Structures are given as structure tokens and as C-alpha cells.
Amino acid sequence: MYSMKKYYVVLLYLLFTVKVFAQICTPDSQYTTPGYHPDSATGLPNAGAGVLYTTVITIVTPIDSLFDLGPPFGIINATFDSIVIQDNTGDGTAVNGLPPGFTFACDPPSCSFPGGTSGCLLITGTASLVDTGIYNLVIENDAYMQEMVVFGNPAVNMNPLTYYKIEVKDSLIPPPDSNCTVFDTIIVYDTVTVIVYDTVLVAVTDTLIIDVSLTGISPPNNTNTLLVYPNPTNDQITINNGDYLSMTGYTVKIINSIGQDVFSSAVTTPQFVIDISTLGPIGLYFIQVIDGNNNLVENRKLILE
């Protein structure tokens, strides 16, 4: 009875092991031509520091190919027994150049891909901020030919694969064509319009929009828009005065939290660019627009970081 239980335990363990191995990775079925995919033009995706990275390389092994075996055989049409990703330089690994903490595994787990089949190589890991940079990969592989079995089946060294690289970035900012502009949904420091990138990390661009109703001018031309950016800011601030010629007699002021004027200028130029070091310490400030009759027409928040 004990032997039977032991047999079942071993059988369950073997079934579990086979199941785990089967879940390592799945070859991409869109690739049917022999070789490693994606190709050199497409390459591997970038990695973000602190973000789990996973990518799959699909290996399609041909049935046969021309090989130069040297004298006395020369060039022959050899039939592939398999292509094997394995250490053939004695450095202890078959995939060199991975970022720190990254590992690789194959399906089949032996990293041996029989002729006429497809397999895959899984690369995974999480990089840290100190690991940012470009990592050039070197994948060592050998071929085994059926014609060489009678000679002891020695490996035929293939040129290592060197066109893959992984770039580890400190953040993953999406390209411009993947931006999603959202209006009137998020309030950030009294900002009307916020651009949100729909990705793992979120980048926000803050522009304070001030619509000034012009005194003494009839609609529909009685409004001028001022743009103040970035808000909050930690370097400099730009105030775009829009149609500044329509604001003759108007003044723009920046007031600190205790009511002191730290900037004041008549609106006579297209824009003001202000170094925040000239305004005072970090904290809450107010941008005010004063009309020609010395009336306060706008009072908006500005954050210095």
C-alpha cells in the first residue's frame, strides 16, 4: 500500500512538472519563416525600472539548409536534427548581456528546437533605477545535423545572435501618438485642461487658462485668453498674453501668500518668462489681472515647488 501511494505521489509530481514546463512561453504563430523572431528591424521592447518585464522570442527551426562543413565535405544540403541554445564559449551561460536580475527560459525547457518546429525563449525580470542603460544581448546557439550522427553527432557552431538589445529606462513614457486628451475630468491646482497618458506611469502637463473679460469692449471680441505654464513649477513660469494688444492698460501681478507684490508688469509684450527664484520661496502664490481702472478682474492660484 505504501509503494502504491508513493507511486501516485511521483506520478502527480511528474504531471505537475510537465504542466509547469508547458507554461513557460508560447511561440508566436504569426512567424513561419525559419529564424529568430522578432527580426532585427523590430527588436525587443524597452524595459521600465521597477516594472516587471516579459518578452518572448520565437525560434522557427528549418527542416534543412545549406551548410559549409569544411573539408572534405564542403557545402551540403544538411537536414536539421535540432537547433540548441547552449553555452558554446565556456562562459557559463547561453544568453549573455541581460540586465541585472533578468533570466531566460525555453520551451522546450531543454532549449533544443527540433527541425521543422517552432519554440520560444522567454526573457523576464525587473530592473532597478541603477540599472538604466542599453544591454546588448548575445545568444549562443549550435546546430545538430542528421548527416553528422555517423560521426558522433558533433555540434555545428552557428554564429551567435547579436542584434537584440534591451534598453532599461527610468520610466515608460508613451509616444505622442498614444496620448489621450481628457477635458474637465480632473482638477489639478485649478487647472481646466489636463493631458493624461494612459500607461503604467502617468505624466501630467498643467496649463492654467485665464479667460479675461475685457472692460469696455462689446461681445464677441471682449475676451482674451492668458496661458500660464507649467503650474505647478520648479524652474520658470511662462505667461502667454494672447492678444496682448487688446489689453492696453492692463497689468499682470504675482502676489505671495502674505499679500506682497513679487512681480508686476503692464501687458505690453506677447509673453513674460519669469525665473521663480526672483519671486521667493516655494509655496502658494496668486496671479492677478488688473484692468485699466485698477479693478481686479482675475485672481488665480500658482504653485512654486
Description:
The chain is mainly beta and 305 residues long. The protein folds into two domains: 2-169, Sandwich (Immunoglobulin-like), CATH 2.60.40.10; 176-304, Immunoglobulins (Immunoglobulin-like). Helices cover 7% and strands 45% of the residues. The protein is built from one helix and 24 strands. It has a six-stranded antiparallel sheet, with no helix packed on it. Strands 4, 5, 8, 12 and 13 form a five-stranded antiparallel sheet that branches.
Properties at a glance:
single chain, 305 residues, mainly beta, Immunoglobulin-like, 2 domains, six-stranded antiparallel β-sheet, five-stranded antiparallel β-sheet, 1 helix, 45% strand
Structure in a nutshell:
With 305 residues, this protein is mainly beta.
Mean model confidence by pLDDT: 82
The main β sheet shows up as: 6 strands, antiparallel
Distance between the termini: 74 Å
**What is the CATH top level name of the largest domain?**
Mainly Beta
| CATH-level-4 superfamily name of the largest domain | Immunoglobulins
Work out the strand percent: 35-45%
- What structural category characterises the helix and strand content? mainly beta
Task: Report the C-alpha radius of gyration, rounded.
Answer: 33 Å
Q: Give me the side-by-side strand order of the main sheet.
A: 15-16-17-18-19-22
Low-confidence stretches: 15-21, 198-204
Tell how many strands the DSSP assignment holds.
24
- CATH structural architecture of the largest domain: Sandwich
CATH topology of the largest domain: Immunoglobulin-like
User: Structurally, how many domains make up the residues?
Assistant: 2
Q: What form results from the Cα inertia axes?
A: rod-shaped
